[in-house]
Design goal:
elongated, 15 helices, binds alpha-D-glucopyranose, seven-stranded parallel beta sheet, about 475 residues, four-stranded antiparallel beta sheet, TIM Barrel, alpha/beta, Immunoglobulin-like, 2 domains
């Protein structure tokens, strides 16, 4: 039986949720599933509505800059050096005197972030090492009272705002320096002191810098959320910052999930943000040369947008605050791409259909953006296969909508196409990729587009054993 295009579209629509659950290519839970606020048990509609309000800018922002900067940047051997190398604490503390960054280093970070198309920043206010980059009354192990001689968080906040970027604070609950930081797990008096200290530092952060947009907790070792008093912690945060959003790393669900170093869309529709390094280290690691290419970064951003998630990409500035050369190069290139192609990311909605080995997809309304990261150019097969003519052809199987027009986003040029029940072929394209590192074809469709990677396998008509040459 021949399946008509219309029938096939119905099948794609109806089967979407099931296919998403079953397929290995990874659907995202139904055609057009929009990012939904996570509703936790017993949450009232008011609480959920408030989350929708607070999260709106963040969903539109899609792309942020993570910054890991602290005493570990002086060593330049990853932010876990203190523990992984077992550096004696009295020695590690000496770094506090020798951490002497140049004034307003954060301005260059914020400028780069804006040029790269990143809409928000999240900076380490205190990492696991326990050193506070901010002014605090609770310890002298902090930037204004040590080498820097000033409040580095205040400089960062000012720099981000000057570039029109939203401001996020990373805060590590785990603390390797505080005497109660580990023993709080077994000593009740230590726990009480340490929880009070922790809440006190967070209170200062939430009080002294005006409006803060994100609180990004990290590692809640060694206590449970009850022991940390995480509920009270969040309540205090929301009382001081009614518009803020918080992540899930103080042991509570918070407003969004935080897959780390991998891209994993939430099946439930809950908000999520993948955080990732540009090489393999968060803090400055001078010898780490395992840099991702600008193409990889763009592909990752596309994959996040496709699944309705955000991408928080890290830089690890050097001790003086300079941005490593490679990070600058990579982000500048990503920024040039975003200048031309940003609409395919910022305005996209979660879609069904994850991508192929040569292309990723995003969607806005009925527009399908095909992000071709391996441009096909010419194939010798076109001598025999009319499918590949006229050269060059980009073909996508299983598109669940009828394409009505198409254009190359980089040039605005119209693109010819053919479509049958199985695939759509964009033809007569330039042999050389029109854009770098990824070329986008924008296809206007007659309905919300999806791309079902299993569709061709399941629905293509098969012929017979052996070949037929006629
Ligand atoms: C991990 C690491 C930490 C890094 C963080 C970023 O929790 O311990 O060094 O800051 O991930 O997500």
């Amino acid at each position: 039986m021949k399946i008509s295009r219309r029938d096939s579209l119905k099948i794609v629509g109806a089967g979407a949720a099931a296919a998403a659950a079953a397929s290995s290519w990874g659907g995202f839970g139904g055609a057009g599933a929009a990012p939904m606020p996570s509703q936790q048990p017993q949450e009232s509609p008011e609480v959920v509505a408030d989350r929708v309000r607070r999260m709106k800018w963040w969903h539109a922002a899609k792309f942020g800059m993570f910054i890991h900067w602290g005493l570990y940047s002086v060593i330049g051997q990853h932010e876990w050096a203190m523990e992984l190398e077992g550096i004696p604490i009295p020695q590690y503390e000496l770094l506090a005197k020798h951490f002497t960054p140049k004034p307003h280093a954060a301005r260059a970070w914020a400028r780069l972030a804006r040029q790269a198309g990143q809409k928000y920043m999240v900076m380490t206010t205190k990492h696991h090492e326990g050193f506070c980059n901010f002014e605090t009354k609770l310890t002298n192990y902090c930037a204004p009272k040590q080498g820097p001689g000033r409040d580095l968080v205040a400089e960062y906040v000012e720099a981000a705002r000057a570039e029109g970027l939203r401001v996020g604070f990373y805060y590590s609950l785990m603390d390797w320096h505080h005497p109660d930081g580990a023993r709080c797990a077994t000593d009740e008096a230590a726990r009480q002191r340490f929880v009070e200290y922790t809440h006190g530092l967070i209170r200062e952060l939430m009080t002294n810098y005006g409006k803060i947009d994100i609180l990004w907790y990290d590692v809640d070792w060694p206590l449970t959320p009850e022991q940390w008093k995480s509920k009270e912690m969040n309540e205090m945060v929301f009382e001081l910052q009614p518009d803020i959003i918080v992540n899930n790393r103080n042991g509570l669900p918070g407003d969004f999930s935080t897959p780390e170093q991998h891209i994993q869309a939430e099946k439930t529709g809950r908000a999520w943000e993948t955080c990732m390094t540009m090489n393999d280290s968060w803090g400055y690691q001078k010898a780490d040369d395992n840099w991702k290419s600008p193409k990889t970064i763009v592909r990752n951003l596309v994959t996040c947008a496709n699944g309705g998630g955000n991408y928080l990409l890290n830089i690890g500035p050097m001790a003086d605050g300079s941005i490593p050369e490679e990070s600058l190069r990579i982000l500048s290139k990503v920024g040039k791409w975003m200048d031309k192609n940003g609409e395919t990311i910022y305005e996209s909605e979660r879609m069904f259909g994850r991508g192929t080995p040569f292309a990723g997809f995003t969607r806005q309304g009925n527009t399908l953006y095909i992000h071709v990261h391996f441009w096909p150019g010419e194939t010798s097969a076109s001598k025999w296969l009319s499918f590949y003519r006229p050269t060059s052809t980009v073909a996508i199987g299983g598109v669940g909508a009828k394409v009505q027009s198409a254009r190359l986003l980089a040039t605005g040029e119209k693109v010819d196409f053919r479509q049958d029940d199985i695939s759509v072929q964009f033809t007569g394209l330039p042999v050389a990729a029109p854009d770098d590192p990824v070329t986008v074809i924008a296809a206007e469709c007659d309905a919300e587009p999806s791309v079902d990677g299993d569709y061709v396998r399941e629905h293509r008509e098969r012929y017979k054993v052996g070949v037929s040459w006629s």
